Amino acid sequence: MLKPFVPLAAFGLSASMLVHVLTLLRLPSPFGEMTGLLHLGAIVVVVPTVLIAQPLLFNAKSWVDASYIFEIPFNLRGQLLLRGCPAWMRRTTTFFGAYVFICLAVLLISTRPGHTATPDTELQWFSGCWMAAYAFALSVLWSAIRVAGRDVLPRCTAGHLVWSTSVRYCQTCRRPVVDGPVSSASGYAGLARSAD
Ligand SMILES: [Zn+2]
Q1: pLDDT category of residue 186 using cuts at 50, 70 and 90
Q2: Cα 131 vs. chain centroid, distance in angstroms?
Q3: Ligand 1 centroid vs 59 CA: distance in angstroms?
Q4: Residue 178 pairs with which residues in a beta bridge?
Q5: CA distances for 112 relative to 24, 25, 106, 116, angstroms
Q6: Could you tell me the residue range of the domain that residue 17 belongs to?
Q7: What is the C-alpha separation between 42 and 133, in angstroms, rounded?
């Protein structure tokens, strides 16, 4: 279900990089009027990314032994989200995330009082954001697809997901934990059931 979004995110990332480099060279976008579709595409790929990010982190809880998702430090959340990605992919995504701030600085400097932003500057800013959004979506989706079926999730005899691998009784119903790994493919579906 996530797979169709991967080539879309990869295409969006390549296209936004092309547009961004061309704006740096003061050249027009090769997509002309269609350039705005990259904005729409970014929203299209970010929606499933955000939806999958939560179960991806919840599954990670059995790895990091955290009681609540919000107790996981912010930097660790990024690593956990992207745990299915190769290191270069994680670094690239971080780079695009940081690069947005450079684009923002350029935008703020060029729009300070007395100056007006040219369409070039605006497109530079937008394409910087698109690159970050597509890179984030691509790596989170990639990670989710890679770890599906490989994450080990303990369950109790009543079927609840047990957040910690180091406890022997369910945090919800106190029933004992079943031995043996449960794949995250069923884990994703079981999240709703285990939440009550
Ligand atoms: Zn239970």
Answers
A1: very low
A2: 13
A3: 16
A4: 155
A5: 19, 22, 10, 7
A6: 5-147
A7: 6
Question: 130 vs 10, 13, 161, 168, CA distance in Å?
Answer: 12, 7, 36, 45
For residue 195, list its beta bridge partners.
none
- The rounded Å distance from CA 157 to ligand 1 centre is 7
Query: Distance between CA atoms of 142 and 84, rounded to whole angstroms?
Result: 7
Domain boundary among 147, 171, 186: 147
pTM of the entire structure? 0.71
Query: Are residues 97 and 42 both part of a single domain?
Result: yes
Ligand 1 center to 190 CA (angstroms): 12
Distance 155 CA to ligand 1 centre (A): 7
CA of 160 to the centre of ligand 1 (A): 4
- Residue 158 Cα to ligand 1 midpoint, Å, equals 5
Indicate the number of domains in the chain. 2
* Rounded Cα–Cα distance for residues 74 and 87 (Å): 18
Average pLDDT over every residue of 94-122: 87
